[in-house]
């Protein structure tokens, strides 16, 4: 073990003349309020398909990492913030992002995390990560970057 790192355990075999054991100490996660848990876990962003709010299979894999971190740190509370791209009306996108936040939260709860440790909200297209606002021509990949959920550490 080492200060600032999670410990690692390995078993050694008895009766061997020589053996080599590698230990991999991993820095402890910095669970600072206001930061995105995805950054702390170094996991890819959770994305949604155009005009959809269901959890995609690739997103489910990444969401399981969020669930495991919440199980490992039972004091952890997060705020799920979901977003859309700028296509469709502002009002429609607000409803869609709220549905994305709800489906993300429901997935985490169904995986065994207490609802009291979660909050969620949709932000529509109010927090774009690029230039792709209303009327700006963008590629499909650029629009995809805005259709996401974030996991902001509350406590």
TrEMBL record:
Matching CDD domains, A to Z? OmpA_C-like
Membrane recorded as keyword? yes
| Residue intervals of the OmpA-like domain | 35-155
Which SUPFAM superfamilies has this protein been placed in?
A: OmpA-like
Among Pfam families, the record links this protein to: OmpA
Q: What is its main location?
A: membrane
Instruction: Give the keywords, sorted.
Output: Cell outer membrane, Membrane
Superkingdom of origin: Bacteria
Which compartments is it annotated to reside in? Answer: Cell outer membrane
Q: What name appears for this protein in its UniProt entry?
A: OmpA family protein
